[in-house]
Write a structure and sequence with these properties.
This is Helix-turn-helix domain-containing protein. By secondary structure, the protein is of the alpha+beta class. It is built from 3 helices and 3 strands, in the order βααββα.
Length: 66
Amino acid sequence: MNTKELYRVPDVMALLSLGRSTLYEELRSRRLRSVRVGRVRLIPAAAIAEYIALLEREADGIGIAS
């Protein structure tokens, strides 16, 4: 199996169709988790899946405080 576990920022930008500023804002707000290895920021595949699930819940109106 050749599945990546960690993705670089440009790869995640392409996967999620997000711009650099938007992606870094999601990282800053901790809506999307990441790890640092030296000077490189990497996003785990599991964090990408969790982020997509969060977006789906928000689209369905679940988990939004009113």
